[in-house]
Amino acid sequence: MVRIHFFIPDNPNPLNFRYYHAIVVLAEGLKKEKIEYFGNTDYWYDPINQEYLITKAPEKYRADVNIYLGKCFEEAKIRIDKSRVNILLDTSDGMFTCSSEKRFMQFDLIFKAHYNSNYNYSEKVKPWPFALSNRIIDTIDETRVSKQEDKVLVNFRGGHTLRKLVIANFHPLLADKYLIDDSTEVKLKTSDFERIENVKDIHKSYLYQTAQRHNPKYFERLNGALFTSVFGGFVMLKPIRKYKMRPPFRQLFKHQVLLSGIKINSKNYFMYQYDSWRFWESLYADTVPIHLDFEEWGAVLPVMPVNGVHYIGVKNFDFEACAEYIKSLSHEQIKQIAENGKKWVIENYTPAKVTQYVVEEINKMKKLK
Fold first, then answer.
1. At CB < 8 A and 24+ separation, what contacts does 70-75 make?
2. Which pTM was predicted?
3. d(Cα 262, Cα 267) in Å, to the nearest integer?
4. What is the pLDDT of residue 250?
5. Which residues in 101-220 belong to E strands, given as ranges?
6. DSSP 64-104
7. By the 8 A CB rule, do 349 and 129 touch?
8. pLDDT exceeds cutoff 70 at 13
9. Fewest 10 Å CB contacts: which of 147, 220, 257, 355?
10. Is 91 a residue whose pLDDT tops 90?
C-alpha cells in the first residue's frame, strides 16, 4: 500500500490562516480510501471529532510519495528526495506559475490548476480540478431550500477582466426576466483566539481556516437561486505559436481585453485562471452555473463537463445568444441541468474520486519508468 507525505507551508500567525483547498480535498480522499498519509505539520482541524485531518509525521518517516504544495516548495527551498515519487500541486493563480519553470521539472508529476490547452506544458504536467471538499458538500446539504427564486446569483470576489465584461455586457440581458442578485453576505464576526482547537463552532472554525471563505448564508443563497454566475479568469491575446512565453514577451501579450482593439473571440484570445470554488459549489448545489464554454476556450479538466448538460457556457462571447437561450428554458429544463451537474460532479470530483485520479496518474508514471 502506498504511503503519502504532504509538505505544507506552516501557519506562522494563528489568526491569519492560509487555506490549501487542494491539500484538504486530497487528504479527505486518502482518508476515505484508507491510504496512509502524514504531513510535515498538523493541518485542517475538525472541531466535531476534535482531530486534525493531517497530522505531523513521526520522526524519520519515509513515504513512497512526497506531495508538495508549490508555495511550500518555493518558500522552504526544499531539496526533494529523488529516491521517492515527488509530486507538486501547482494551484497558484495566474498563467506563469511554477509549472512553467524549468527548476520544477525535477518533480515526477505536476498537477496544475487552470490547465489550458492553448499553452504547451511538459508531459509531466497534468490538469488539476478545484473539486469538492467535505466542507462544501456538507454545508450545501445543510442549507438546501424548499423553493428557489427566479434569480441569478452574482457573488464575485476578485475583479477579473472576464467578470467586468460579464457585468457590463451579459447580466443586463438577463435582467428583464431574472433578478440579478449581486448583494453580498454580512461577514461573520470573528474574535481573537490562541489556538484553532479552542474554536468549537464548526462554521466559525471553517471561517478561520478558509481565510474568510466560508459562510452558510452564501450556500443557502446558492441553493436558492435558479442560476449562479460563476465567471472567473482573465482573457489574454493568444501568442502566434503555442510555446512557453519568455519574460520579454509576457507583457506584449498580456493585454487587458477591455483595452484591446482586437476582436474579442476564441480565435484571438484564450482564457486563464478560469477555475474557482464557486463553479464546483454551484455544480453540487441546486443552482445552474453559468460560465464561458470550457472546451471552446481551452480549459482542461480530467473529466470535462458538457455545455448545456451540466452547466451553461457562453460561446465566443455571444452574450446575447446565451441570454436568449437561458430565458427560453422552462423551469423543468433548468432543474434538469442542475440535477445533471450535481450527478456529474458527484461521479467525478468528490475527494475520493480526486484521490483515485492522482493514484492512477502515479501508477501510469511508474509504468513509464
1. 70/97, 70/98, 70/104, 71/9, 71/18, 72/7, 72/8, 72/9, 73/7, 73/98, 73/104, 74/98, 75/9
2. 0.88
3. 11
4. 46
5. 109-113, 125-128, 149-154, 179-181
6. SEEEEEHHHHHHHTPPP-TTSEEEEEE--SSSSSGGG-GGG
7. yes
8. no
9. 147
10. no
Query: In the prediction, which pLDDT does 261 show?
Result: 46
Question: Helix 277-284 vs helix 216-224: angle between axes, to the nearest 10 degrees?
Answer: 60
Domain boundaries, the chain: 3-131+350-368, 134-348
Q: Which helix (H) or strand (E) holds 349?
A: none
Residue 24 phi/psi, 5-degree rounding, is -60, -50
**Grid cell digits, residue 10:** 506552516
By DSSP bridging, strand 312-314 and strand 125-128 are unpaired
Pairing mode, if any, of strands 85-90 and 65-69? parallel
Q: Look up cell 498519509; give the residue.
A: 37
Strand partners of residue 85: 65
Instruction: Give backbone dihedrals phi and psi of 87, rounded to 5 degrees, phi first.
Output: -120, 140
pLDDT tier at 194, thresholds 50, 70, 90: low
Amino acid at 266: S
Cα–chain-centroid distance for residue 190?
25
Rounded Cα distance between 326 and 336, Å, is 13
User: Within a 10 A sphere around the Cβ of 178, how many other Cβ atoms?
Assistant: 18
Q: Which amino acid is at 278?
A: R
| Count of CB atoms situated within 10 Å of the CB of 134 | 17
pLDDT (average), residues 78-101: 81
What is the distance between the alpha carbons of residues 75 and 102, in angstroms, rounded to a whole number? 17
Tell me the three cell numbers of residue 152: 441569478
Q: Identify which of 66-80, 125-139, 198-212 has the greatest average pLDDT.
A: 125-139
CATH number of 134-348: 3.40.50.2000
Over residues 146-169, mean pLDDT: 85
Are 253 and 239 in contact by the 8 Å Cβ rule? The answer is yes
